[in-house]
Protein: GTP cyclohydrolase 1 type 2 homolog
Organism: Pseudomonas mangiferae
Amino acid sequence: MAIALTTLVEETDRYLNIARIADYCPNGLQVEGRPQVRRIVSGVTASQALLEAAVAAEADAVLVHHGYFWKGENPCVTGMKQRRLKTLLAHDISLLAYHLPLDLHPEVGNNVQLARQLDIEVEGPLEPDNPKTVGLVGALAEPMSARDFARRVAEVLGREPLLVEGAGSVQRIGWCTGGGQGYIDTAIAAGVDLYLTGEASEQTFHSARENDVAFIAAGHHATERYGVQALGDYLAKRFAIEHLFIDCPNPV
């Protein structure tokens, strides 16, 4: 079965409520391909490797979290950008990208989906009074050591995380997928035992250590694999089309 590209884009934009937040890139249809969609390939980033895999899979559209046209980037279509766009246009494949709206969504969002993977019960946003807050806070069913929780993260995500141990056991957790290390002080103020994100900055170590809070950096790519999969599955079920998630390995 096929669905019109315009219908697919309209439903995805509506479902993710893309107008609710200012972002660093355009959300929605970034590159227009053929007018009918039968098969979607999803992935974390619209890299050349993902595009070539989508071509091989005979995809009509590519759905990603990290697309193109970021604020402040060089607008010239040369080099890597030219090759990527040429691949999409030559094969008449559409590119749909959703950044912060996908992080925030209460059902298919990256943060909610990661919580489900790690058995964290979501309580709410890190900053309840700030509607633009991406991170969440929640709790484990039972307290455990930071090392044991890090082992759970490693088993689920398939990579060894960076761990900074805090004082005592871990039950209340704050997290933000991807490059959310800047939220650590907000998480500390929210009273967490451990803060989890994808990346770490030099100062993140000191914030965790000096506040006796555990910290885990589990990988930007690794923590953001689940939202786009859930969104692709939603669209496949909604429109009776095919969806294939392709994970292009990334150690960062």
